[in-house]
C-alpha cells in the first residue's frame, strides 16, 4: 500500500508537468498579444509601441515559448512562483492566502452533498417508484437544472434580506460559510442522489443480496453491510471528481459571495494574461486534484477488500 | 470478517465527520469583527462601509490603478489641482498656478504646512517624486513633460515639449501626489502614504480595505472616523448587502435595480451625469465604414433615446451623436444632435449605391451585401453593452444593414483591432481627464486604436489642445463637436450616469460628476 502511495505521489509530478505545459501553450495560443494586454493594464489606453516592447522584454515574453516554460518550471522547482505582472504581489503568497478558503468551501460542500445524497439515494432505491422516490427524483432534477448563480442570489435574498439570519457575502466566520455551501452542496447533491439511487438499485439485484436474504439476515445488515458498501464505490469516485472540480471551478459561487477562492483568482488572471499567476493557480489545482483522486483510490481499498494495489500480496 | 468490515465502514463515516470538523474549525479562527452583520452597531458610530466591485490591485504610481481601486485612492491620495462636484477646477495641493508662456511651462505654488500621513512634509520634492520617470503616467499621458523641477520648497515648475492645459490633466486620481516615503531606500514600494482625508490602515485581500481618519487633514475635517471598503464583485450581492445594512453605501449600482431602490424606504439613490460617453467606433480604414455615407446611415438608424429609456432603464442621457456629455468643458449647448431618421438612413445608403436588389432585406453594392461585425468586450461593461449591442443590431437591420455581434475578451479585441479585422466596436468613454475634452484624441490618426485618419480632424485636435486662449479653445472644441457629428468617426450613444446608493442614515453626501472619485467630505452617520 505504501509503495503504491509513493508511486502515485511521484506520478503527480508528471501530471503537473503535463498540465502546466498544456496551460502554458493554451495561454500562448489564446488571441491577443500578451505584452500588449499587460501594457494596457499597466499604463492605460495611451500606449506607445515602445512601451509594449519594454513590457515584452521585461517580462521575458520575447524568448521562445519553450524557453519561457522551462524558465518558469525551473523557478518553480526552487519554489519561486514569481510575482503577478499586474499587481506585483508574490504569487505563492497570493495562492496560499486563498487555499484555506477554497478547501473550506470545497470540503463543506462535498460533506453537505453527501449527507443529503446518500440517505436520499438509498431511500429512493429502497422504495422504488413510491411517492418518496418520485419526490426525490423530481427534487434532484430540479437541483440539477437550477443554475448556481440563480440559487446563490435566491439564497441571499431569502436568508439575508427576507429572513435576516445570515450575512449575504464575505469570508471569515462560520455563518459566512453557510450560504455558499448550501448553493454548491445542494446542486451537487442532486447529481449524487441520482447516482446513489441507480447504483443501489443495481446492487440490490445482485445474487449476493438474494443469498444474504436466503440466509435469513435481517434487512438492516443486508442493507448497510452488504448493499450500501458496494453501492458506494461509484459514488465515491464521483465525489472525488467533484471535490477536484470544486477546488478550482467554483468561480461563480466565489464571485457571488465574495469568497476569496482559487477559482476566481484563476479566471481573473487568465483575463489579465497574468501568465505566472495562471500557471501558479493551475499547478496548485492540479496537485489538489491529484491528491483528491489518490484519496479516493485509497478509500476504495479500505471499502472493498478485493482491491489491492500491491502486486506481491 | 463481517465485523472487521463493519469497523472499516465506521472509519469511513468518521472520515467524513472529520472533514466536517476540519471545515468547521477552519472558519472559526477568522476574526470576529470583519464581516459580521453590523447594521445595528454601525448606525451609532461614525464609521462608513462602502461596497465596491474590485480589490485595490495596486497602490503605487508605477502602474495604472485599475477598477474600483481608484475610489479608495481618492480617499488616501490627493492631486495638485482638484475638481468640485460640478467639475469646476479648484485648488488642491497647489494653491495657485500660472503659465508664463501660453502652456509650455507651468508653475505651481504649493500649499504650506501640509504633511503626509506619516509626518513627511509635503513640498516641491514630493511633487517631483510623483512625476519622475518611474511614474507610469510620465510614459503615457504625460509623455510631453520634459522636466519637473523644484524652484523652491513651495514652487514646482513643469516644462513641456508642447503647450497643453496641464492643470486639467493633473486633476486625475490615477496620478496623484505620493510621499517619497511610500518606498524604501532601494525604491521598493512599502505602503500607501498620501495627504488625503483618510489614511491606510489595513487590507485583507479580496475582502476589505480599512482606512482611518487623517487627524491632521489640511482641508475640511472628516466627520467619519473610519471608512471600510468591502469588496463585493457581484452587483446583485452588493445591492442586497446594502439593503440588509451590511454595507452603508454601494458604488456602481446596476441599472435594473435603480428604480426599485429609488422607491424603497430607507435607501437613497444619488445620480449624476459623469464625464464618460459610450460610443460605437467604426473601422474607417476598411469597407464599408471607409464610406462616410454608410457611417452617417448608421448614425441615422440608431435611436439612442430608445436605447437609453428601454435598454438602460432611463439611466444616462441619450447622446444622439454628441461627442461628449453636457457636463464637460466647452460642451456646445447649441449643438443640434441627431434624431433617428430611418428614411434618411435608407436614402443615404441608396444614394451611395447600396440597394437591396435580391429582396433579402440586406442592401448590396457590387453584389456584396452590407454585413458588418460589432465587437463587444466581455469585461466589466458587458452587462450594459450586451443588451445595447442587440438593440443596435435590430435597428441597423431595419435600415438594411446586417450586424453580427461578437462577444470577445479584451485580448481578442485588441488582436482584431491590430489586424484591422472588424467593423465596429462598442466602447465606453476613455481619455477623459476631468472636464477637459481630451477624448477627441481617440480619433486622432496618432492615437493607438483610432482606425480613423483625417488631416483636418488631426489639425483641429492639435490646435485645440495647444491653445491657451480660452475663447479660441472653445471655438476649436465647438468645431470638433460639429465635425464628429457630421463626419461620424464614431457614433456617440449614451452619456453615462454615475449611481451611488446609500442607506438613509448616511447624511451629507454630495455626488460628483467626476468618475472614478468618491467625495466623502461632509458625510456623517445620523444617530437614531
Can you offer a commentary on this structure?
The complex is a heterodimer of chains A (313) and B (528). With 313 residues, chain A is mostly helical. Chain A has 13 helices and no strands. Chain A has helices at 2-29, 34-43, 49-58, 65-77, 91-126, 131-145, 148-162, 174-204, 207-214, 219-249, 251-256, 262-271, 275-303. In chain A, helix 7 crosses helix 8. The longest helix of chain A is centred in the middle third of the chain and has 36 residues, at 91-126. The N and C termini of chain A lie close together (10 Å). The model of chain A has no long low-confidence stretch (mean pLDDT 88). By secondary structure, chain B is α+β, with helices and mostly antiparallel strands. Chain B has 14 helices and 21 strands. In chain B, the strands form 5 sheets. In chain B, strands 1, 8, 9, 10, 11, 12, 13, 16, 17, 18 and 19 form an 11-stranded mixed sheet that branches. In chain B, strands 4-5-7-6 form a 4-stranded antiparallel sheet, covered by helices on one side. Residues 21-43 of chain B have low confidence and may be disordered. The interface between A and B is large, with 63 and 67 residues.
The CATH homology group name of the largest domain in chain A: MetI-like
Cα shape of chain A: globular
The SS-based structural class of chain A is mainly alpha
Q: Give the DSSP E fraction of chain A (strand runs of 2 or more residues).
A: under 5%
Which CATH class of the largest domain in chain A applies here? Mainly Alpha
Tally of strands of chain A: 0
Strand composition percent of chain B: 15-25%
Most strands sheet of chain B: 11 strands, mixed
Q: What share of the residues of chain B lie within helices? A: 25-40%
Rg of chain A, Cα atoms, Å: 24 Å
State the largest interface. Answer: A-B, 63 and 67 residues
SSE class of chain B: alpha+beta
Number of DSSP helical runs of chain A: 13
Amino acid at each position: 500500500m505504501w509503495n503504491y502511495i509513493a508511486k502515485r505521489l511521484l506520478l503527480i509530478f508528471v501530471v503537473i508537468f503535463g498540465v502546466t505545459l498544456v496551460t502554458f501553450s493554451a495561454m500562448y495560443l489564446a488571441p491577443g498579444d500578451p505584452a500588449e494586454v499587460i501594457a494596457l493594464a499597466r499604463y492605460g489606453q495611451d500606449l506607445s509601441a515602445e512601451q509594449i516592447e519594454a513590457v515584452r522584454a521585461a517580462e521575458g515574453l520575447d524568448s521562445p515559448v519553450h524557453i519561457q516554460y522551462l524558465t518558469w518550471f525551473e523557478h518553480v522547482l526552487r519554489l519561486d512562483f514569481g510575482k503577478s505582472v499586474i499587481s506585483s504581489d508574490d504569487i505563492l503568497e497570493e495562492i496560499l492566502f486563498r487555499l484555506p478558503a477554497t478547501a473550506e468551501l470545497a470540503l463543506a460542500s462535498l460533506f453537505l452533498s453527501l449527507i443529503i445524497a446518500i440517505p436520499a439515494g438509498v431511500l429512493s432505491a429502497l422504495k422504488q417508484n413510491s411517492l418518496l422516490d418520485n419526490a426525490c427524483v423530481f427534487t434532484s432534477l430540479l437541483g440539477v437544472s437550477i443554475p448556481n448563480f440563480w440559487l446563490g442570489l435566491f439564497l441571499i435574498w431569502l436568508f439575508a434580506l427576507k429572513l435576516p439570519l445570515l450575512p449575504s457575502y464575505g469570508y471569515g466566520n462560520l455563518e459566512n460559510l453557510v450560504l455558499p455551501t448550501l448553493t454548491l452542496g445542494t446542486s451537487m447533491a442532486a447529481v449524487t442522489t441520482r447516482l446513489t439511487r441507480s447504483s443501489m438499485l443495481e446492487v440490490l439485484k445482485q445474487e449476493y443480496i438474494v443469498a444474504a436474504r436466503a440466509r435469513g439476515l435481517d434487512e438492516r445488515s443486508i442493507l448497510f453491510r452488504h448493499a450500501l458498501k458496494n453501492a458506494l464505490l461509484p459514488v465515491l469516485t464521483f465525489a472525488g471528481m467533484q471535490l477536484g472540480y470544486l477546488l478550482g471551478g467554483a468561480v461563480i459561487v466565489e464571485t457571488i459571495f465574495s469568497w476569496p477562492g482559487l477559482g476566481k483568482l484563476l479566471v481573473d488572471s487568465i483575463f489579465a494574461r497574468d501568465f505566472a499567476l495562471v500557471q501558479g493557480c493551475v499547478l496548485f489545482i492540479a496537485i489538489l486534484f491529484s491528491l483528491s483522486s489518490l484519496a479516493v483510490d485509497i478509500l476504495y481499498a479500505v471499502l472493498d477488500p478485493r482491491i489491492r494495489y500491491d502486486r506481491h500480496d | 470478517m463481517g465485523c472487521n468490515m463493519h469497523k472499516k465502514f465506521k472509519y469511513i463515516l468518521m472520515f467524513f465527520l472529520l472533514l466536517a470538523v476540519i471545515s468547521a474549525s477552519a472558519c472559526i479562527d477568522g476574526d470576529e469583527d470583519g464581516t459580521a452583520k453590523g447594521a445595528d452597531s454601525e448606525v451609532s458610530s461614525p464609521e462608513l462601509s462602502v461596497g465596491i466591485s474590485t480589490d485595490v490591485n495596486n497602490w503605487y504610481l508605477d502602474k495604472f490603478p485599475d477598477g474600483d481601486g481608484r475610489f479608495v485612492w481618492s480617499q488616501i491620495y490627493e492631486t495638485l489641482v482638484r475638481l468640485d462636484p460640478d467639475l469646476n477646477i479648484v485648488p488642491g495641493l497647489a494653491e495657485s498656478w500660472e503659465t508664463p508662456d501660453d502652456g509650455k511651462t507651468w508653475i505651481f505654488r504649493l500649499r504650506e504646512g501640509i504633511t503626509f500621513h506619516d509626518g513627511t512634509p509635503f513640498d516641491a520634492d514630493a511633487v517631483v517624486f510623483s512625476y519622475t520617470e518611474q511614474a507610469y503616467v510620465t510614459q503615457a499621458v504625460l509623455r510631453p513633460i520634459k522636466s519637473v523641477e523644484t524652484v523652491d520648497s513651495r514652487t514646482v515648475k513643469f516644462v513641456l515639449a508642447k503647450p497643453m492645459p496641464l492643470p486639467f490633466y493633473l486633476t486625475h486620481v490615477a496620478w496623484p501626489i505620493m510621499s517619497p516615503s511610500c518606498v524604501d531606500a532601494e525604491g521598493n514600494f512599502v505602503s500607501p502614504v498620501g495627504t488625503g482625508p483618510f489614511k491606510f490602515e489595513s487590507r485583507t485581500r479580496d475582502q476589505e480595505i480599512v482606512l482611518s481618519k487623517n487627524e491632521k487633514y489640511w482641508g475640511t475635517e472628516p466627520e467619519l472616523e473610519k471608512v471600510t471598503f468591502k469588496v463585493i464583485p457581484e452587483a446583485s450581492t452588493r445591492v442586497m448587502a446594502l439593503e440588509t445594512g451590511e454595507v452603508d453605501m454601494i458604488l456602481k449600482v446596476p441599472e435594473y435595480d435603480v428604480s426599485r431602490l429609488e422607491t424603497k424606504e430607507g435607501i437613497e439613490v444619488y445620480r449624476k451625469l459623469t464625464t464618460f460617453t459610450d460610443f460605437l467606433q467604426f473601422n474607417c480604414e476598411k469597407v464599408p465604414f471607409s464610406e462616410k455615407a454608410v457611417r452617417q446611415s448608421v448614425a441615422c438608424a440608431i435611436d439612442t433615446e430608445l436605447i437609453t429609456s428601454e435598454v438602460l432603464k432611463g439611466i444616462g442621457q441619450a447622446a444622439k451623436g454628441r461627442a461628449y456629455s453636457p457636463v464637460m468643458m466647452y460642451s456646445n449647448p447649441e449643438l443640434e444632435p441627431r434624431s433617428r431618421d430611418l428614411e434618411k438612413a435608407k436614402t443615404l445608403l441608396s444614394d451611395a449605391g447600396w440597394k437591396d436588389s435580391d429582396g433579402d432585406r440586406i442592401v448590396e453594392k457590387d453584389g456584396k451585401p452590407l454585413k458588418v461585425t460589432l465587437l463587444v468586450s466581455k469585461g466589466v461593461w458587458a452587462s450594459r453593452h450586451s443588451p445595447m449591442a442587440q438593440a443596435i443590431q435590430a435597428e441597423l437591420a431595419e435600415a438594411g444593414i446586417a450586424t453580427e455581434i461578437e462577444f470577445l475578451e479584451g485580448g481578442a479585441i485588441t488582436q482584431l483591432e491590430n489586424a484591422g479585422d472588424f467593423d465596429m466596436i462598442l466602447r465606453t468613454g476613455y481619455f477623459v481627464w476631468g472636464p477637459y475634452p481630451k477624448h477627441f484624441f481617440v480619433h486622432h490618426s496618432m492615437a493607438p486604436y483610432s482606425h480613423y485618419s483625417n488631416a483636418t480632424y488631426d489639425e483641429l485636435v492639435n490646435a485645440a489642445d495647444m491653445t491657451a486662449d480660452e475663447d479660441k479653445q472653445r471655438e476649436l472644441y465647438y468645431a470638433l463637436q460639429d465635425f464628429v457629428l457630421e463626419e461620424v468617426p464614431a457614433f456617440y450613444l449614451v452619456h453615462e450616469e454615475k449611481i451611488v446608493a446609500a442607506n438613509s442614515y448616511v447624511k451629507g453626501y454630495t455626488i460628483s460628476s467626476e468618475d472614478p472619485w468618491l467625495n466623502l467630505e461632509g458625510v456623517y452617520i445620523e444617530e437614531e
